[in-house]
Amino acid sequence: MEGINKQVEKRREAVKRISSAKKITALTGAGISVACGIMPFRGRGGLWEKHDPIVADINYFLEHPAKSWAVLKEIQEVVEKALPNVAHFSLARMEDMGFLSSIITQNVDGLHQEAGNKVVIEFHGNTRRMICLECKALYPSVEISLDSLPPFCPVCRGLLKPDAVFFGESIPTAALLQAHVDAQQCEVMLVIGTSGLVEPAAGLPFLAQKNGACIIEINPEETVLTDSVTDIFLEGKAEEILPLLVDELSAINEG
């Protein structure tokens, strides 16, 4: 009972901080999409336990596109079937109510936009798009057949690649700059479903805290961020915690 009461107190404190802030940014990771059937890349049960991560190295991809695409096809098929879960919809609701200014996501599944969020910074790109490495044309992934691998550009016959950041590639400049601006300007940063191990995204909560933001972390278990930068730790799955926050924020809005 004591543990439950403590969680309720922490959640109320989180709601208080969110409701009184003018700018709130969320940083999301793979944990928010696990309930959609999308496995995380790292950790227990992650994609890199099943496959060698070299398939997502840009140099390997360029040298062995067919071998890389054999694995990437599996990822594409899972992502294209995935639908947003209640955690994604909760963040979209928070944006609608004025309690969320932007999302910086490390995910490449596009589910925040599918749920209705309008201000989404895609730190690592989006696999729902493909890019031609020759003419730089972009295509919705669903329009490109993967029956023959690797796929090629319908216009110039250049090699197609998921429009996501591979190992050895840089974060898109516009996304990196905007993420830094939002981290510096936010009064509250929600850190959701991320281990805080992958740079440079892992540095964003520290940047936010340095500029005076309250860091609210939502994760099933403690991370490297919990003791170093987190102000309020809400232990649990995103799809369980976020709807509770939204209900309490809705009550404030209606009051």
Number of domains: 2
Helix-strand category: alpha/beta
Output the helix-strand order.
HEHHHHEHEEEEHEHEEH
Largest sheet descriptor? 6 strands, parallel
Output the radius of gyration: 19 Å
Count of helical stretches: 9
And the CATH topology of the largest domain?
Answer: Rossmann fold
**Would you count the extended β strands for me?**
9
How are strands sequenced across the largest beta sheet? Answer: 3-2-1-7-8-9
Structure write-up:
With 255 residues, the chain is α/β, with parallel strands linked by helices. The chain folds into two domains: 1-36 and 84-124 and 171-255, TPP-binding domain (Rossmann fold); 39-81 and 127-164, 2-Layer Sandwich (SIR2/SIRT2 'Small Domain'), CATH 3.30.1600. 39% of the residues lie in helices and 17% in strands. The strands form two sheets. The protein has a six-stranded parallel beta sheet, with helices on both faces. A three-stranded antiparallel beta sheet has the order 5-4-6, with helices on one face. Helix 8 (204-210) links the parallel strand 7 and strand 8.
